[in-house]
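Trying the structure run again after the queue cleared.
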Amino acid sequence: MVDGNTATETDVFSISNGVLTQNTLGSGDGVNGYRLANVVDTTQPFTLSWRSRVLQDEFVLNPQNFFGLGLSINSSSQRFTVGFGTDAIGISAFQILPGSFNNTVFHNYRLEGSFNSGNAQLYIDDLPIATLALLSGVTPNASDGLFFGDATGYTNALAEISSYSFIQGTLPGSVPEPSSILGLLSLGVLGIGAALNRKL
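Done. Tokens:
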């Protein structure tokens, strides 16, 4: 999806050696990312896992908003979302977690939660970092679905994602049934289009 600028998918995203690179530096104001609607069962708990880093960010508008790389899980009216700058983690528009984070190196991130409970736990390299609350609103064209990419017009980013998976119907620590696995995005092997909508 693209909103607010004229960058194309190939302007922003590329795959090399199994790593998806996003580069919205210099693209100006706008949102550029991948979304997949109607794949989230909001009655079931979820685990979203990914490995990423943000090599550079660029603030286009004020105030600063750290969603140059953002990920969200949406219902029809609410979302869990998290965003990354080089040294900050955003948990809603213009709100960041306290402290400084080195997001310029690869980390394993995980978001475990439930729309029923209204909470999700964020882990970095298996360490619990924060509990996130549901926010109002959904990513455009991703109702009951998933989004990742440059999620704000306020910030652009050069970022890399080397893995991404979404699992539902299991509790943390349990073994998922095959039918509960939505899919694993194996970048460069299955290709982006195997799991997410390629159209920007």
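The two ends are 3 Å apart (CA to CA). Worth checking whether this holds up in the mutant runs.
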